[in-house]
Amino acid sequence: MKRISLLSPRLANQIAAGEVVERPASVVKELVENSIDAGATRVDIDVESGGVKLIKIRDNGSGILKDDLALALSRHATSKITELEDLEAVASLGFRGEALASISSVSRLSLTANTEGQTEAWSVRVEGRDMEPVLSPASHPTGTTIEVRDLFYNTPARRKFLRTEKTEFGHLEEVIKRIALSHFDINFQLRHNQRVIHQLRSAHSALEKDRRVATVCGPAFLEQAVCIDAQAGDMRLWGWVGLPTFSRSQADLQFFFVNGRVIRDKLVSHAVRQAYRDVLYNGRHPAFVLYLELDPAGVDVNVHPTKHEVRFRDSRAVHNFLFSQLHHALAEVSPEHHLISQN
Ligand code: ADP
Ligand code: MG
Description:
343 residues; 24% strand; binds adenosine-5'-diphosphate; single chain; Heat Shock Protein 90; five-stranded mixed β-sheet; nuclease; alpha+beta; eight-stranded mixed β-sheet; 15 strands; Ribosomal Protein S5, domain 2; 2 domains
């Protein structure tokens, strides 16, 4: 007699999907990151009903070979790393080979792609847990279009946790903002129920970047922020630091990127809080858009499946660098702050 049996791969994916796919916004994050990893310069995101009914993402990246299409949907299938050593210096946003497997196990998904050199496009479709992927010829320029319909249609317990269309779209829009602020060179369009919500042209010059920041964070932030750009060893910190006069009642305008990846990190938050400590009233929150760049080997991104957390090899150096640069920038614009901190 036996009581233990192996889960079917798709059931295992559905269970694992809980880690990566929480709501439409997390699907959009994973898919747009895939487009970026594929070298796309234009990504169009179309959603219906807050993304619950449909998320459609079209890019002009490298596309996927016909023979890789079905494989791309299986767990631990990735083109981004092959050796354990690759993890040490991973530069792509994805690498775990989990997103498509997870998403396809809890939705109706189709993936259509064409590559440079392939004579025709192909499409693969899966639905639910037990269906084998179905391949069919399609029409598509070089690049990829992915359609995710009816998220959680086969996992009612998960679907129950979804909020209103408006709330879900709000989360999704946040994701797009973060990505737009970390990839200035990419054109993004976000449409909701056929209406264009954000149209962001690629930004190369400082002026164009300012414009994108103003579009994403609001013009008032840009008017009340100082630019910083500082280097120490192999670390660089640059971006926009909101003046104390632009403090907020909520921590809703705080963007921190490490090597192009959005992160939420205790160490980073602590350094920022310390730097603003003397210039902000209690209960007020600073606004900032900051980019930390450092040797990928100095930061571990493989801490959590959503990759929101990181671990710095030399966390003390990172903390000191952040604090001193921000403190310096704020002292320059508010002289009293300088005095207070020197006493
Ligand atoms: P990961 O991004 O961790 O590699 P995913 O499940 O997100 O895993 O994707 C699996 C693979 O499918 C990727 O490694 C990549 O080769 C391919 N892929 C997914 N989306 C795209 C895309 N938009 N353009 C090109 N290739 C893609
Ligand atoms: Mg991915």
